[in-house]
Amino acid sequence: MVTEEQVDQVIAEILGSYRKDRKNLVPLLQAVQTKLGYLPKEAMKGIASFLEMPEVDVWGVATFYNQFRFVPLGKYHTVVCMGTACHLAGGRLILEALERELDIKVGETAEDGNFSLERVACIGCCMLAPVIIIKDKIHPKITPFKVEEALIPYKHEAQSEKS
Amino acid sequence: MTFEEISNKAKSEWEALQKGNYILVGTATCGRAAGALDVVDAFGKELKRRGLEVPIIQVGCMELCYAEPLVTISKPDSLRVVYNNVTPEIVPRLVAGYVAGDDPCLELALGTLEGGDEEAVYIPELPRYERELRLILRRCGYIDPESMNDYIANGGYSGLEKALKISPDEIIVELKKSGLRGRGGAGFPTHRKWEQCRKAKGTPKYVICNADEGDPGAFMDRVVLESDPHQVIEGMTIAGYAVGAEQGYVYVRAEYPLAIERVRIALKQAAEFGFLGDNVMGSGFAFHIEIAAGAGAFVSGEATALVAAMEGRRSEPRIRPPRLAEAGLWNKPTLLNNVKTFAYVPSIIERGAEWFASNGTEGSKGTAVFALAGKVVNSGLAEVPMGTTLRQLVYDIGGGIVKDRQFKAVQIGGPSGGCLPEALLDIPIDYDSLREAGSMMGSGGIIIMDEDNCMVDAARFFLDFSARESCGKCTMCRLGTLQMLHILEDITAGRGKMEDIDLVLALAEDVKAGSLCGLGKTAPNPVLTTLRYFRDEYEAHIQEKFCPAKVCTELIVYYILPDRCDRACEHCVLTCPTEAIKGGKGEVKIIDQEKCSKCGTCLEVCPPEYNAVVKLSPVSSLPSPELPKRRSKK
Ligand SMILES: Cc1cc2nc3c(=O)[nH]c(=O)nc-3n(C[C@H](O)[C@H](O)[C@H](O)COP(=O)(O)O)c2cc1C
Ligand code: FES
Q1: Of A60, B3, B97, B356, which residue is the least packed, with the fewest Cβ within 10 Å?
Q2: How confident is the model at residue B627 (pLDDT cuts 50, 70, 90)?
Q3: Which CATH superfamily is domain B3-113 in?
Q4: CA A46 from centre of chain
């Protein structure tokens, strides 16, 4: 979890390098998310007052675009492709398997902060469909059974760090 | 330096490179996903170990995504050999064999590389190249996308140089003669847009390149930007000169980090060479280009929605007129074209309109670039003359269906394109023929489906995408698509009624009529075409609760054939994630249908020599003692 001071610091840093111009709203949101992994409420408020626009408009824009997230990502962020090629190769079963194995729904981050699950429409490697990405590593031609296998090393790592 | 001097210098450097050995590795996104960066590392290490000084050049995508990582070893006086699916393990063998020695390791090769310079490179061993005509992909996978010199030495920027010497009106006339139509989907004549923008009152004017490419399963624009970015920059600069704009933007989705990076590098180089900036090539014409990173909304690809996104607003389309050419970005005259549209421009100016127009059909000139994905053997890109048939594309270039399964449908034009059956495979690919068949050219994504794909499920999937991506401005698009989706969900879950078909058809008309932009207007296409060409599948789902492709989980059951089950084997029992399979050692295994989540793991792990697990549909076809007491609900 990011602390309030951290948010303030990041915001101050980022705002310093942008002009006060509405067209910079999306780039600002992108910059914050790149730094923090998500958009904390305080950050959006900071951007609103910097651009002198209503907070609700910042919220309206941020929630419009698929790129923005409002909860922190897990340590092992998992992305499941729900693009056309992946769907035709059984993507829905993969999504169900991930939800079952991680015990979270798509779009959520587990309470212990280890895993988070997100769906996207096409990662751009359709020839390897269906694909998932765990912590930036692509797992090609995955099956529900292989999902379980692919997660084992990360689950172990999370376990051993806890103890 | 004059352009001629720059060009001569680039050419002599290129020729010097050809005099020695060098290695090309494809490291576009597709190559990277397949492990190309590890291959680059492996070559680096192996060459160093042997004390060899051979350049390793990272190039873009050669269209053959299925064969990535692709490596080409080029030697001055012998064959240039292309190797497919290269792994770090075979790198030492390639280095020992062909870099250091004279053994071309043909058993590892895909073929040889021919062509080059002004023309496209090709692999004569692959029959697909007889069908292809690569105009805008001709340098992709051959030149270093991060090298300005490579681009110039292979004909780059001579279109701009020529353009600056003729008048803007002459450029527009040339475009008109070429017959170029926009490659972003709608096929609007490009010269008309340019002319409208040129004539529009108001300054400054803007040029925007639409690289949003939100269509899942389409990656042509990404490949062009990752493999040959200067081509697009050159086209945009010519456009700026023709319409009288000084500022250009490349609007590219943030999910394409490598494309963004390569465009950034290319922009920097072009500015250093004076091909962008306050005085382009010394002509007195000023033009600058910036990158705007999209934040991932499919609708942002729509022209007016894209402008809203760039202005920092929610990306919602607006009513036209006014056209962007009159009131676009910040209400100023704006020219907006697709990546590929701009990419054609330099060659058209350089080689002439006749050259371009000599390819293609009466109403659709030039080539079309497609991304083939789904159940096709050779996933990847293809650039073919307009008028090529779908069959040629799927079989001659795509190599047919994986595992020799039966072809079922081809979906063309992105999530709102239509699904066309076998009987229509011989229609020529051009804007008008596709529209007649209920589909559209769209962005150029082509998805191939086989007998294992359910058409009702496919229609549901595409509708789900459109409903999710609807911006919500128009009621019919926001709620009508959702309502259609609910009906299809019912049908795929076995709760459909025959009346539903008429209801969906009526709703489809309303959604089309009641939507402002192309998203809503075309969202019903997949449903309409699957109903037109695959109605029997809908009826089977509704009347017999039968999914012919055995995809819809609520209409299928998994069953272990007792006489095929080995009894001693316990693969399924041990791997079933819901512990739904009963049967101790030595017993026939039985699936508890109440617990089964229908993930298919048992089918996957059952050893091929037994092949005991089958899918059955409808659920009632399950042999009676095992019938679930009540229909299991997920
Ligand atoms: C929902 C929707 C999404 C679109 N997405 C794209 C896109 O990703 N890329 C694109 O070039 N055009 C897209 N278009 C088409 C654009 O509105 C526009 O027609 C096109 O970019 C114009 O360029 P062209 O004249 O070069 O074809 C989309 C249209 C709609 C309705
Ligand atoms: S559809 Fe999954 S990578 Fe393209």
Answers
A1: A60
A2: low
A3: Glutaredoxin (3.40.30.10)
A4: 21
